[in-house]
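Running this now, will post back.
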Amino acid sequence: MAQSTGSARLAIVAGLTMIGIYAVQFVAARFSLREHLTVTDMVVLRFAGAGAAFLPLVWRSGFARIRALGWRRALALAALAGLPYPLIINWGLTYAPAVHGAALCPASIVFFSFLLSIFQERASHQRTIGVATIIVGLLLFIAPARGSYEVLLGDLLFVGSGLMFSAYATLVRQWRIDPVTATAAVVLLSCLPLPFLALFAPSGLHAAAGVEIVGQVIIQGLLAGAAAMFLYTYIVGQLGSQAASLFMPGVPIATVVVGMVVLGETPTPIQFAAVAIMAAGMGFSAMARRAARAV
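Update: finished.
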């Protein structure tokens, strides 16, 4: 019991750390995408940093971990949470404000994690109500974007990224993969196309300051690409994919604050209400899970 309580506390600390990382990631990405860097630049910097973080691990253990996982499973995980995942999010950030991504990506992860989990476990009425509340918040948040097709496209890309990441978390849980192996496989396979992107994709690296490039390597690569991925996978292993997704309501709240200060992007009153509704839905679902575990 004590060990289980200690693991749960570590998972909570991991979740709070992850919230801070993702909030900074969205704002930093939006800032550079508005200024100098392209979508592919951000992806290259992300996995260059993450690859550097995991290179010692892969070098020490060779490919033993990935071979044990299986290349098909490794490719599946990389397709869902590897290079295509931040590519879609960064593409969305070229059309929509950072707070849109910070609100819609986490809420979509919770929603799709719920849908994928109902095939494996029965959902309580309270959790179902919580997810329904999230859907209301999602629709309310997207509604003002209907007048701008660019913003709506960005919002839809964010929702699609949520589906991808929830599928990744579900597979990690179903295949019982440890967080180091899963993250190393995703990062390693995502690094393979980077030389081609660096050589042939449009780039704005030449116009960016060295401090900005190094900062994005740290934020997008070391923190978001490696640390946050590891933390989320660790939480999934400890608490399950649904519980891991329930840390996400803190991301839009933190991003709203940081985005207002750094980017000057202030959500509309309706979007503030939508964020509150989505956070309430996620919190309601979290209480449902705690009540179910106490029975």
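The chain has a mean pLDDT of 81. More later if anyone needs it.
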